[in-house]
Design brief:
- The radius of gyration is 21 Å and the shape is globular.
- The chain has an eight-stranded mixed beta sheet with strand order 14-15-16-19-21-20-23-22, with no helix packed on it.
- The protein has 430 residues and is α+β, with helices and mostly antiparallel strands.
- It folds into two domains: 345 residues, Metallo-dependent phosphatases (Purple Acid Phosphatase, chain A, domain 2, 4-Layer Sandwich); 62 residues.
Length: 430
Amino acid sequence: MLRPRIGLLLLTVFASGLVSSCGRSQTMNAPDPASAVAWVEMTGQGAEARISSPDGRCPDAVIDGQAQPMSLRAPASADFPAICAIRPPRGATHLSIGDRMLPLPHDAPNRIVIIGDTGCRIQGLDAQSCNDPQSWPFPAVAAQAAREAPDLVIHVGDYYYRENACPLTGRCGGSPFGDHWPTWRAEFFDPAAPLLARAPMVFVRGNHEECRRGGTGWFRLLEAGSWRPVCGGLSDPFVVQLGSLILGVVDSSDAQDRAVPHEALSDMAHQFETLDAKLEARDAFLLTHRPIWAMVPAARLGPAGLISVAVNRTEQAAARDHISDGVKMIISGHIHHFAAYDFGPQRPAQLVAGEGGDEPLPADRPRFDHTAAVIDGMPARRLSFARYGYVLMIRSGTDWRIEAHEVDGSIAAACRLSGRRLTCDTLGRP
């Protein structure tokens, strides 16, 4: 998420002179680099199992009792271990690598967990307390979400936030930082371990995975397509199909919120056009890190007055006449709260699930906001609130129940998606 900051450049320069002695160590308290991490992710070609290999050798995977060699996805580098991969055939029922049993996709997932914006922010002097579960609750969020027994997990982007060393003013001493393997383990793979063991993942690229930030790790580890030895350009759009459920995934990492640069507009329009014909099915959703039609809290005037502005101008311009009629809902993150927008049948509903771990925007509040909005020329009913947690989608016939859960698993709000209509009720504290 792009956050408003005053004098960010000066603060960042100043922060470089205030790094604590424990913050200098990028590997202090980091996970054992000799241990491997394994997961299953969905790509445009189906499921793909991946594992980190500290010694650079690819192990065998056992698929339905048959040993099969994994192939090298990316060789080891100074900053990352080698990554090995294998695509189990459709219909496989058991997959293991060494002593790890890995989840395989369901033909018709009925329970889907959505998380987003999960990393712990260390940027200049702006530092979360990464060692404090109250300040950075993603490990608890992931553990609780895994207890929901999901068939599929969608991460809507922004995994990497630890861009700088922990400053003297922060309570994040010993945290790894920079686009390196210890950081990615601390930010995502280790806290997300319960989810990775439970269900396959769909990964969406966020703006924090731009090449100038966490792009190297993104392309090596999570990118659905082939590894790129040099970070550059956008990820290719792709479609995940699991029975009647169709997910179109686009890369909006470079889509500016306030301006409409010609190149970014062209890139987004091309992605939407590429997926258009593939998303005509009844159960189609579009995944993009930056919401197409949503409001971001920009300023608060006193206890009640809130000024919100709409995002994303680039995607809004690109989406005109390029979003298939089969798309029921846009699923996004980027804004660090839960939000649901209903535009009626003329436009897909917009869901925002960016409450996974990074701190909320200063103007946002945990109270429910039912304020009506007009976004890109169309009125919307909305519900939003800023509380850490996750979203659970549960299939109900041809409809979906969408629950906004807090860290402890309690349900703050529940919505029903019927066609493109998204209606919500609040259940938790005001």
